[in-house]
């Protein structure tokens, strides 16, 4: 298949590196994938993200080229263009409406790109304005689309019921997200699919005879920010250590709490 992925900024910036393994797996299965970030901003920091640059079509949210493509799409299919524009005015707040209108021209441009590239499917990560872009592109190009919802984007509820109606499928990445999605969409819509985010794991190697009391190893891949709950993890490890349960923790990530967590980790080890 020829797939277009619509993230927020990937491969740019820090926030969406977790999407990379999914794209790599699809490419490894023989699918052709191009990445069209809604708002390409920030440096390309990760080596695996750098490898995606050759498959990325990066354009600003608004530019003369985007406007020109939007006008051409209007002249080609004015009824479709006006219908999709009308959908945006169903937004539940003025702020969400303005956000949707801001990406509307790029959605038309994306539809033109998808049709010219002969894409088979468009997939958006995040149910907010990236999904709005994909919705618009799908409608004007007649190419099917889908979306992955995460967390804050479900709570925002940016035309979720409409998007669930028009998309091939809506995906949640955890049980709680699937439940929240169901509460935001009509009962006659298909239930959200639950497909967790995956990571590539190294092959299992022979570690030799196990010790009589092996250490339980925990790996946490997450930004070092308060909402990820590292402090609670460290407290749990401290309690396990008191009970003489050997546990090791590896943190994969970076963020503003790095130094504070290093200090807490030292205290836990002591």
Number of domains: 2
Radius of gyration: 22 Å
Measured by DSSP, the beta-strand proportion falls in 5-15%
In angstroms, what separates the terminal alpha carbons?
53 Å
Q: Order of helices and strands, N to C?
A: EHEHHHHEHEHHEHEEHEH
Number of strands: 8
Q: Classify the secondary structure makeup into a structural class.
A: alpha/beta
CATH architecture of the largest domain: 3-Layer(aba) Sandwich
Helical content stands at 40-55%
pLDDT < 50 stretches: none
CATH class of the largest domain: Alpha Beta
What best-fitting shape do the alpha-carbon axes yield?
elongated
Assign the CATH topology of the largest domain. Rossmann fold
Characterize the structure shown.
Helix 10 links the parallel strand 7 and strand 8 (247-252). 45% of the residues lie in helices and 13% in strands. The strands form two sheets. The chain has a six-stranded parallel β-sheet, sandwiched between helices. A two-stranded parallel ribbon has the order 7-8. The longest helix is centred in the middle third of the chain and has 24 residues, at 94-117. The chain has helices at residues 20-28, 47-50, 64-76, 78-88, 94-117, 129-141, 152-156, 160-166, 175-184, 230-242, 258-269, and strands at 2-6, 32-35, 121-125, 145-149, 170-172, 193-194, 216-221, 247-252. The chain contains eleven helices and eight strands. The radius of gyration is 22 Å and the shape is elongated. It has two domains: 2-194, Rossmann fold (3-Layer(aba) Sandwich); 216-269. It is an alpha/beta fold and 270 residues long.
């Amino acid at each position: 298949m020829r797939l277009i992925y619509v993230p927020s900024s990937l491969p740019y910036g820090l926030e969406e590196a977790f999407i990379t393994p999914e794209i790599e797996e699809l490419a490894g299965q023989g699918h052709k994938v191009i990445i069209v970030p809604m708002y390409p901003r920030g440096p390309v920091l990760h080596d695996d993200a750098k490898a995606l640059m050759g498959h990325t079509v990066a354009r600003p949210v608004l530019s003369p080229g985007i406007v020109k493509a939007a006008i051409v799409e209007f002249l080609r299919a004015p009824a479709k263009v006006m219908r999709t524009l009308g959908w945006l005015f169903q937004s539940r707040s003025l702020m969400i409406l303005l956000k949707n209108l801001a990406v509307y021209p790029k959605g038309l441009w994306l539809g033109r790109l998808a049709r010219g590239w002969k894409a088979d499917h468009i997939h958006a990560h995040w149910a907010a304005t990236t999904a709005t872009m994909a919705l618009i592109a799908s409608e004007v190009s007649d190419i099917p689309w889908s979306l992955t919802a995460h967390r804050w984007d479900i709570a925002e509820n940016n035309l979720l019921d409409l998007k669930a109606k028009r998309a091939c499928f809506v995906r949640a990445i955890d049980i709680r997200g699937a439940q929240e999605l169901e509460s935001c969409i009509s009962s006659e819509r298909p239930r959200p699919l639950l497909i967790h985010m995956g990571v590539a794991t190294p092959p299992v190697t022979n570690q030799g005879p196990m010790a009589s009391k092996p250490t339980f190893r925990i790996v946490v891949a997450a930004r070092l920010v308060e909402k990820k709950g590292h402090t609670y993890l460290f407290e749990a490890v401290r309690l396990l250590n008191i009970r003489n349960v050997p546990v090791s923790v590896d943190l994969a990530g970076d963020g503003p709490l790095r130094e504070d967590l290093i200090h807490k980790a030292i205290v836990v080890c002591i």
